[in-house]
Every structure is written in C-alpha cells, then in structure tokens.
C-alpha cells in the first residue's frame, strides 16, 4: 500500500535552520542528574544546535523571502491534509509504524526550523562520517533543478544523484540549490513527489544523527524493539551519545524516560526484561577499544581480528554457565550484562571459548536458545542472539535485518527497509552476498517482488553500487 505510512518529516535543508527558544531553554535547564546520561564531554563543550557551523551560513539560512514562506505554509497545509488521510487509512489497517513530524507537544510550526546546516554536536565529536565531496556539486544542482518540473519529475535523474552521494555532497548540493535558485531542494521535492518516494527522498536529505534520532523515537513510540536494538547495537558509543543529546533537545525528555514509560506498561515479563536490555545498551558501557566502527563492517569476521583478554573471557564463560545451564532456572541479568558490556571481538571469541569449555559442548548461541525458551521473553532472546551474531558475522546480521523488513506482517516495513538501505549502502555488495548465501535468493529480487513504482527504483538504485 503506497499510503499506509505517515509522512516522514525530517528537516534538514539549509534554509530551515532555526531552533525554537523553547528547545534552547530545555537544553540549558537540563538537570545535573540527566547530564550524567547525556553529556560525556565537559559542559563547556556543549554547543546549541543553532550556534554551530559558519555564522554567515546560519545568518543566510534565516533569510527566507515572502515567496518561500508562503510556499512553506501552502505545503504544510497540503501535507497536513495528506497526513490526515493517511492516518485514517493507517487506523483502518491497524498499522501505526511511522515517523512523526517531531515532538507533538511543541508548536508544529517550529518543526521545519529545527536542525542547523551543520550540527553543533557533530562539530564536537565528529562521530558521523559525512564523507568527502568528489562530484561536481554545481552540475548536480543544475540537473536536479531540470528534473523537477511544474507537473513532472525526472525520477531517473533524481535517483542517479541523490541515491549515490554521501551526506557531505548532499549538504553541499542543498546549499548550492538554495543559493542559485532561492528555493529549498527539500521543499521542491516534497511539492512534486508523493508517499513512499517522497519520504525516501526526504530521508536521504536528512542529517545522519537527526535521522537516527527520528528512527529511535519512532521505534520507541511503536514498540519496534527490533529497530531499536539495531540502532543501539550497531552505532558507536559516540554516535549513541549524540542521538541521546538531540533526542533530549527535540522531545524534551531523555530516551531512557521514554523507554521506561513505553516498556513498563502492564505486567509483561518480556516488556520488563526488554526494558532492562535496552537501558543497558543505552548506558554505552560496551568496551570500544577493539570494536569496529559500524560504518566499516566490510568483512564477516572483522570483529574477531583484534586482541582480547582471554582471562576475562574464561571468567565470563564460567559466569554464563553458572547462570544458565549449570542450574535450574536462569539468571537472565548475567546474560544481559555480559552481552551489552563486552566488545564485539570479545563476544566473538567468547562464543568459541564457551563451547570448548562447556561440559555439554553447547555453543553460547545454543545456551541462549535453551535458557530463554519462554514465549514471554521471545523478543529478548532474539535480541541477544542478534548481538552475538553481529559480533561474529556483521554482514549476515544485516542480511537478516533486510529479510525481517521484507517479511513484516502483511507486507514490508517501509521505514525499516528505507533506514537499512540508507545507512548500510556503503556495504551493499557484502550484504547482498550474505543474503543470497543465507536465503538462497537475491536481495534485489526479494525487494523487487515486494516493492513497486518509484519507491522500488530508488531503493534498488541505492543498493546498486
């Protein structure tokens, strides 16, 4: 269904860069206890979102002429009507898997002025790799302008550029487009495209840390624990810290608060244990000394190519055995603690060591399957197995994530498929090889059979590298 998802409004274009005073005050008044969770740097290093980047660019970004203002208002009205229609269809299908336009508790008119051209937090930690500019930005902006007509769009030309440029290049294209034509590229694309294709284009233009933040909020709101675990598992400690900061400013509360509120509803054992697992992953306690950056998972065994502490591995192996297979009942907390704290290289080696040291000769994966057998904690078991798989075979893990997105409920999970394609495009070749090896089917064929029209074309274009 083309319109079974709400519009993903992820502001990122250079002309929409003013953060609201309410959000500034929110960040400045964060309690010290909250800062312990969200500020790894000295407080003097924290920069407001609207104070980053080149001051001249920021001042220029605030200058929006009357024509653009009127255009933004008209588009907002149009999108609001479309959103209402889409929500009605979503409700009829009992499907609420969508990314909102931001914090509903805040003035929606401020949503489009949220993110600065260059995030101040990224200037501090440099934790998201924007890439380098290697293409002709002027030529790209001219082609995009020619591809957006009054009553048509040349999606082939648009895809050939936006699906094959890193964020540094897309950011430069947006700025050049705005400077040369006095128009926002994002607004132009919003105005001339629709539904899944439009949402994907906007996602492609969204700053990476903001895109992760929006996906985290959506995953919490819809209780999509698989997506939430994916982001918390595969992003670096620094990237997660950045997402936590932006989340606090944008939504007025920290991620921990929303996870506790969402996963504490009722008396579900799975919900409470899932909450415990997610909070442990959010603490950023995982040893990163020999972890591989999530942007470079190019080899299946790259997590196991680093030196590890064999004494600690032996201790962990014994603790896991004593907490599980050695006795009746299971100390689930021990499994959660070790799998969320240890480096991926450590976990990869631990899996092998456990099987050799275990009197029953079970692998650690088999031990988790045996100790988390209750249906009430099925999702927790799946998440722990995902952590273990990612530590040993990252590309196989990504292949499984793509398969889940393609086999979700009645059809595909559009948001998950789009996120996976955008964030893992850099290793598409390796993932495609892992997919065909694991599922005896081509990832391209699987996506082609489950998607259609312009959405299919842009997803396939991103994966054809």
Strand residue content = under 5%
Q: Helical residue percent? A: 55-70%
Count every helix, treating DSSP H or I runs of 4 or more residues as helices: 25
What are the low-pLDDT stretches, counting only 5+ consecutive residues below 50? 1-72, 81-97, 100-119, 292-296
Q: What is the structural class?
A: mainly alpha
The shape, in one word, is elongated
Average pLDDT: 77
H and E order: HHHHHHHHHHHHHHHHHHHHHHHHH
Main sheet: strands, sense, barrel: none
**Span from first to last CA?**
28 Å
Q: Can you count the beta strands?
A: 0
Q: What is the CA-atom radius of gyration, in angstroms?
A: 23 Å
Describe what you observe in this structure:
With 465 residues, this protein is an all-alpha fold. It is built from 25 helices and no strands. The longest helix is centred in the first third of the chain and has 27 residues, at 66-92.
